[in-house]
Design goal:
287 residues, 6-stranded mixed beta sheet, 5-stranded mixed beta sheet, 6 helices, 13 strands, elongated
């Protein structure tokens, strides 16, 4: 059973009181997951709504889902989360320190005692802690929790996130389309353009749709890349994984200082097959 505070949306004080009032329905608690960015729940088994940032799971299988309690800064949301942590067995000093982390996954023993030495504070997604996440969220990105998909526009402008995805999420397959025909792109379903920059993204960046997909075990990364840059982006990712060029040897790809600049190259010719698929299943590591 999932218990939600439907009467008060994103209200930290009401959510704190709601949790305490309904805690007996999940007691004793088994696991507490709290994030600044709800998108991090995409890797969990929880069936959450958008903007749910707090999930408490009991040993009986019941769960409490809340939108007003989060973590990662010193505001009211994290402070009310700290109140919950004290309620669950942490000291005030411990709770105060923990609330500043962008993510908290806390496990509890079968009698509801917190296991304090094994708290996971890492996050996959962050919109404020750029250095402490795998993928940084901004106005050109959107995480579809329901379908487990990450949409991103022109990821070559922040290539470190793509490299992190390759290193941490171990993609199974890379698909690409190098052409300029909209009806030949890689994805025919709904694309949330309003969430990844709006109409100006299409008109100003020569974007026709999804032309690169990284298929991972738990999530698909769908990239909408400027058609003038897609060839160099694919070649760059291939070089990062296999340490060789896919479309021909390039001195730029061998020079670390100019590696990022290759993303910005506009290639006018297309001497390669427009559609491609690279199987990565056999590559357990990218050494």
């Amino acid at each position: 059973m999932i218990i939600k505070n439907n009467d008060h949306y994103r209200n930290s004080y009401m959510d704190r009181d709601f949790f305490k009032e309904r805690y007996h329905e999940i007691e004793p608690i088994k696991k507490l997951s709290v994030y600044f960015d709800y998108q991090n729940f995409i890797f969990s088994d929880y069936d959450i709504d958008e903007y749910t940032t707090f999930v408490a799971e009991g040993w009986n299988g019941n769960q409490i889902h809340l939108t007003g309690l989060n973590c990662g800064y010193g505001g009211t949301g994290p402070s009310r989360t700290a109140d919950i942590l004290v309620f669950l067995g942490f000291t005030e000093d411990e709770a105060y320190d923990l609330k500043y982390n962008p993510g908290l996954v806390i496990h509890f023993s079968k009698n509801g005692t917190p296991i304090k030495n094994k708290i996971d504070k890492s996050v996959n997604f962050s919109s404020q802690f750029k250095r402490n996440c795998i993928f940084y969220l901004d106005r050109t990105t959107y995480v579809d929790i329901t379908d487990r998909q990450l949409f991103v526009t022109n990821p070559q402008l922040n290539p470190r996130s793509l490299y992190n995805i390759i290193d941490e999420w171990k993609p199974l397959e890379l698909k690409y389309y190098l052409g300029t025909m909209e009806n030949e792109t890689l994805y025919d379903d709904y694309i949330p353009y309003d969430n990844i920059g709006g109409d100006d993204i299409l008109s100003d960046n020569h974007i026709i749709g999804v032309n690169l997909i990284l298929q991972c075990r738990e999530i698909n990364v769908l990239c909408l890349i400027d058609t003038q840059s897609i060839t160099s982006v694919v070649d760059m990712l291939y070089y990062y994984i296999f340490k060789k060029s896919l479309f021909g040897d390039s001195i730029l790809l061998k020079q670390p200082k100019s590696r990022f600049s290759t993303f910005l190259l506009s290639l006018t010719s297309e001497p390669y097959k427009s559609h491609g698929r690279i199987d990565l299943k056999k590559r357990n590591s990218y050494d």
